[in-house]
């Protein structure tokens, strides 16, 4: 697995390889609940006005990109009218996985199959003003506290940093969206979050909380975890501990790879850290807050899906946490070069 993601706030020269599972979601005002979205019908067969290929332009290309996004072959939230290399690669992957010759050219056969896997684009999708899911679920108080702090810095919120998604916070989200040219909605989706990040700074853990998160479980440590500073991860116990000189500072539940994928074992060194990583390598955009990379594209990170669904699903190799506050705290304790030990 070696495909490039999109990572907001990261210079293009430092594009990362990442892995994730699940999507951020949650009910929100003014948008469809998940049950309604699942009932959205797929499109019926229809003729293709013209073949679409690299360097083609026009509204048909925009529709193509939206349909590829529906089918989870093009992980983007904004569509445009240019048939670029990324669009061609998505078409080739779609063709390959549906038994068609992977030419990267959209002909009638490709179009008919894609319509069966996608929906009629809405006006909001075509204009890139559709409201997506929450970047991170608003049920996580620590995320809401960060959001309130950033909205306050942006001049859109004047209330307390409470962690409660109250009326003042929802109004501030809508006001900020309008300020940056997005439709008024009470949702901090990825488009809005991406605009908020460069205008504000992330509040430190100690600015939001008076004490470290309390440990809530015990973990039997591997002998390699008894010296120095180390993140100790047990796949068999489904736990993650932060350990200093053999003393466990805190422990949390952890989730690993789904069937067909593997979470690597061994002793590693943290090589990169990014607070706002978004994985786009599996056909959809999945936030990975507080990502700590320790083995190529494998990272420790917070997972909304783990928080919502527990062990019913899994990652593509990463170690996932479901406590946002604990993920933020752990991120601030470690540094590039620190050890990570993963054992059975």
From TrEMBL:
MF-aspect GO terms: peptidoglycan L,D-transpeptidase activity; transferase activity
A biological process from GO: cell wall organization
Swiss-Prot/TrEMBL keywords: Cell shape, Cell wall biogenesis/degradation, Peptidoglycan synthesis, Signal, Transferase
Gene Ontology CC: extracellular region
Active site residues per record: 301, 318
Keyword DNA-binding in record: no
Superkingdom of source: Bacteria
Entries under SUPFAM superfamilies matching the protein: L,D-transpeptidase catalytic domain-like, PGBD-like
Biochemical pathway: Cell wall biogenesis; peptidoglycan biosynthesis
Domain L,D-TPase catalytic, residue spans: 229-343
Residues making up the signal peptide according to the UniProt record: 1-29
UniProt-listed PANTHER family: EXPORTED PROTEIN, L,D-TRANSPEPTIDASE
Family indicated by similarity: Belongs to the YkuD family.
Protein name: L,D-transpeptidase family protein
Source species: Comamonas flocculans
Upper lineage: Bacteria, Pseudomonadati, Pseudomonadota, Betaproteobacteria, Burkholderiales
